[in-house]
C-alpha cells in the first residue's frame, strides 16, 4: 500500500501529466492551505476582561487535532481538551485561554467540536417523564443557546449574594482556566474521610470551588477566614450558592427540547455536556 507521501507525489504527477486526461483540483496541489476560521461572540461579552475582548477566532479542527485527541501521553496527563482549546483559538485579542472564563471556554469547545465532529450529540440515556421509558436522544448542538451575564459586576469584577440560612453577604467571582487547572489537580489529591476506619478517600471539589470563588464575606476578604467559613457552611447555603452562580454565570444553556422516541412526548430537559461524549462519541462511558 502506498504511503501518504507517495499518494501526494502521485497526485502532483498526474496533475502535471497532460496525457493522463485528468486534472487535480488546484487546492490539492498548492503548498499553502488555508484552514477555515470562524469568529465567535463570547458569552461574557468581554465584561469581565481588562481588554473588554468580546470575540475569539477559532480554526476548524483538522487532522492535527485528531492527533491531539488520540495522543496517549495527553490523555494520560488529562490535558487533551486544554491543548485542543489552545490550538483551536487562534485570536482572542491577546487574551489567553487560561484567563478566559470557564463559560467562554466551554462555549468555544462546543464550537470547535462542531467544526470537527458535527452538531449531532448523544448525551446518554434519559428517562421520559411521560412514559417513564429510557431512551437515548440525539441533540443538535446548534440548538444550544448562549447564556449572557444577567447583571454587571462591581468595580472589582465581583458579584453579590446573601445566603438564605446564615444571612452572610458574599461577594464571588466566576472561575477561569487557571482555576480549572487548580481544581483538576485538587481532584487528584484525595483526602481521608474524617473518622473512617479504612481510610476512605474522597475529593473536596465543592469546598475548593467555594474557596476559589468566594472573595468576601460581610466585608472580610481574608482567605483564612473564608476557608474556615466554607468548612462549616450549612448544606443549604452551599447548594444555594452553587445554583445561584450557575444561574448568573455566562456560558451555554444546556436546557434543550427533546422528543421521546418511545411515545413521542416532547419535553425540555437539561443535558450533560460530557467532554468524553463530545470529543469521543464512539467511546463507551458510564451514564
Please provide a brief summary of the model:
With 287 residues, the protein is α+β, with helices and mostly antiparallel strands.
Which descriptors would you attach to this protein?
287 residues, alpha+beta, 2 domains, disordered N terminus
Structure description:
- This protein is α+β, with helices and mostly antiparallel strands and 287 residues long.
- It has two domains: 22-147 and 252-279, no CATH class; 159-249, no CATH class.
- 35% of the residues lie in helices and 18% in strands.
- It is built from ten helices and 16 strands.
- It has helices at 4-16, 63-69, 72-77, 80-88, 102-117, 177-188, 205-213, 223-232, 235-248, 275-279; strands at residues 37-41, 55-59, 89-91, 120-121, 126-127, 134-135, 139-140, 145-147, 159-162, 169-172, 191-192, 201-202, 214-217, 251-253, 255-259, 266-270.
- The protein has a three-stranded antiparallel beta sheet. A three-stranded antiparallel beta sheet has the order 9-10-13.
- Strand 15 (255-259) and strand 16 (266-270) form a beta hairpin.
- Helix 4 (80-88) packs across helix 5 (102-117) and helix 6 packs antiparallel against helix 7 (205-213).
- The relative contact order is 0.14.
Secondary-structure topology with pairs:
Layout: H1 4-16, E1 37-41, E2 55-59, H2 63-69, H3 72-77, H4 80-88, E3 89-91, H5 102-117, E4 120-121, E5 126-127, E6 134-135, E7 139-140, E8 145-147, E9 159-162, E10 169-172, H6 177-188, E11 191-192, E12 201-202, H7 205-213, E13 214-217, H8 223-232, H9 235-248, E14 251-253, E15 255-259, E16 266-270, H10 275-279
Antiparallel strand pairs: 1-2, 2-3, 4-7, 5-6, 8-14, 9-10, 10-13, 11-12, 15-16
Helix pairs in contact: 4-5, 6-7
Amino acid at each position: 500500500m502506498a504511503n501518504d507521501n507517495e499518494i501526494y507525489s502521485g497526485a502532483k504527477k498526474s496533475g502535471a501529466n497532460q496525457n493522463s486526461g485528468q486534472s487535480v483540483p488546484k487546492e490539492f496541489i498548492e503548498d499553502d492551505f488555508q484552514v477555515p476560521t470562524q469568529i465567535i461572540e463570547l458569552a461574557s461579552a468581554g465584561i469581565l476582561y481588562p481588554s473588554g475582548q468580546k470575540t475569539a477566532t477559532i480554526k476548524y479542527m483538522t487532522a492535527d487535532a485528531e492527533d491531539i485527541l488520540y495522543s496517549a501521553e495527553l490523555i494520560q496527563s488529562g490535558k487533551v481538551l486544554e491543548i485542543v482549546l489552545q490550538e483551536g483559538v487562534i485570536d482572542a485579542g491577546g487574551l489567553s485561554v487560561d484567563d478566559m472564563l470557564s463559560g467562554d471556554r466551554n462555549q468555544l469547545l462546543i464550537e470547535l467540536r462542531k467544526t470537527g465532529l458535527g452538531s449531532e450529540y448523544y448525551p446518554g440515556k434519559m428517562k421520559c417523564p411521560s412514559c417513564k421509558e429510557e431512551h437515548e436522544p440525539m441533540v443538535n448542538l446548534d440548538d444550544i443557546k448562549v447564556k449572557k451575564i444577567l447583571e454587571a459586576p462591581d468595580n472589582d469584577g465581583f458579584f453579590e449574594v446573601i445566603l438564605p440560612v446564615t444571612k452572610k453577604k458574599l461577594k464571588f467571582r466566576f472561575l477561569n482556566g487557571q482555576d480549572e487547572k487548580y481544581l483538576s489537580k485538587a481532584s487528584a489529591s484525595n483526602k481521608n474521610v474524617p473518622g473512617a476506619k479504612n481510610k476512605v478517600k474522597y475529593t473536596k471539589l465543592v469546598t475548593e470551588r467555594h474557596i476559589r470563588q468566594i472573595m468576601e464575606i460581610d466585608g472580610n476578604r481574608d482567605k483564612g477566614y473564608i476557608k474556615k467559613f466554607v468548612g462549616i457552611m450549612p448544606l443549604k447555603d452551599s447548594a444555594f450558592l452553587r445554583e445561584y452562580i450557575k444561574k448568573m454565570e455566562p456560558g451555554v444553556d444546556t436546557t434543550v427540547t427533546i422528543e421521546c422516541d418511545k411515545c413521542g412526548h416532547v419535553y425540555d430537559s437539561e443535558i450533560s455536556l460530557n467532554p468524553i461524549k463530545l470529543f469521543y462519541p464512539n467511546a463507551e462511558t458510564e451514564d
